[in-house]
Design goal:
By secondary structure, the chain is an alpha/beta fold. Helices cover 37% and strands 16% of the residues. Helix 1 crosses helix 7.
Length: 390
């Protein structure tokens, strides 16, 4: 769907590469500009997760892109990049605010030679303001945004979510902004600057609880650690005899039937939030006596919203997950067989596949230069002089 759209990517970590991968999955030609030593994610991976020396962190966010290694401090390298950008539809960068301007690749400068350029900046906090120079990293933003303060029971410290969901949501918002700007350019012929940042992404994830707060509701974390600060009981995770079961948005009258406990019938629906700790305690006592399978079958029989709490073994084997073709497998020339998450959306009943494997550093430098019209002898000179790396 994005065939013919050329994107130059100055991105690293997760937010930026994931945003450009979304667009590359859709057919855009994404050229990832890396320093001669390689992007950060080539040499880092969460729990030191490397497959035959290749970073899983790099493999999960850089498919369907081309790699071009350029020395940003070399004037010949900068000249190559200006030529590349002048031919591009989109530039995406995830440096700290001001870095691209100091390098000579700020939006105002580039729009003079490419007025149709969509220029997307992905940052931690935004391009201005008192926090613009702070390090923008997922768990820091979860804390600053209030997200961690609403997670976990009241008896333990605030708890970050166990995934980089802010990074990923920031990536999706960045891709959304780019697509909107491209649509606008198709009507006006003019490019624009798009900005997405992790702080806004974290707050956007909290659209519901923050709206409650802004309108006078002050939720508190549950003492039992089961319910959300913002929902009446029952809502949350309960231990069974051999695992855990989540119950969501059902009446205490329905609970009285499925649990065969008359006590629930006497609760006024208007008191289900105020009485959530007592309700939680009674549910917990009853569910602990039988297995997750028993309760799953019984709750299904009574059509009560529920789900078992799966670990990743369960998730990978889940029949709906498998049906949705959630995972993408490929053979990497260095890492060998690799599995990652596929593009999350279907188009015409199909998910986009993989056209290009996550590239080696500078794998496409010569190819991109040739497409820009550089003759072979000039490409050789640039490689020999260190302006670019192949």
């Amino acid at each position: 769907m994005l065939s013919g759209i050329k994107i130059v990517s100055f991105t690293h970590f997760l937010q930026g590469p994931s945003a450009t991968q979304i667009l590359a999955d859709l057919g855009a030609d994404v050229v990832k500009v890396e320093p001669p030593q390689g992007a950060f994610e080539r040499g880092w991976s969460g729990p030191d997760a490397y497959v035959e020396g290749v970073s899983v962190f790099f493999l999960l966010g850089n498919r369907n892109v081309r790699s071009m290694a350029v020395d940003l401090k070399n004037e010949d390298g900068k000249a190559v990049l200006r030529r590349l950008i002048d031919d591009a539809d989109v530039l995406v960068e995830s440096f700290r605010p001001g870095v691209m301007d100091r390098l000579g690749f700020g939006y105002e400068e580039l729009r003079e030679t490419n007025p149709g350029l969509v220029y997307c900046s992905l940052s931690g906090y935004g391009s201005d303001g008192p926090y613009k120079d702070r390090p923008g990293q997922d768990v820091l933003i979860q804390s600053l945004s209030g997200l961690a303060s609403t997670t976990g029971p009241a008896s333990v410290p605030p708890t970050p979510v166990g995934a980089s969901l802010v990074d990923q949501h920031g990536a999706v918002l960045g891709a959304l902004g780019i697509l909107a700007a491209l649509h606008g350019r198709a009507r006006t012929g003019e490019g624009t600057r798009v900005e997405s940042n992790l702080l806004n992404a974290a707050l956007d994830l909290q659209i519901e609880p923050l709206s409650y707060y802004l309108n006078g509701f002050r939720g508190q974390r549950s003492a039992s650690g089961i319910s959300s600060p913002f929902y009446k009981a029952p809502y949350g995770v309960f231990a069974t005899a051999d695992g855990h079961l989540t119950i969501s948005l059902t009446s205490t009258d329905a609970l009285s039937k499925v649990l065969e406990e008359p006590w629930f019938r006497g609760i006024d629906p208007g008191a289900e939030y105020a009485m959530r700790e007592e309700i939680n305690a009674r549910i917990a006592e009853l569910l602990a006596g039988k297995t997750t399978r028993y309760w799953t079958e019984r709750f299904a029989e009574f059509r009560i919203w529920h789900a078992p709490v799966n670990n990743y073994d369960d998730v990978v084997a889940d029949p709906q997950v498998r049906n949705n073709e959630t995972f993408l497998s490929f053979d990497h020339p260095s890492a060998g067989p690799v599995q990652v998450l596929a593009h999350p959306i279907r188009y015409g009943g199909k998910r986009p596949g993989i056209r290009r494997l996550p590239p080696a550093l500078g794998e496409h430098t010569g190819e991109v230069l040739a497409e820009l019209g550089y003759p072979a002898e000039e490409i050789a000179r640039l490689l020999e002089g260190g302006a670019v790396r192949g």
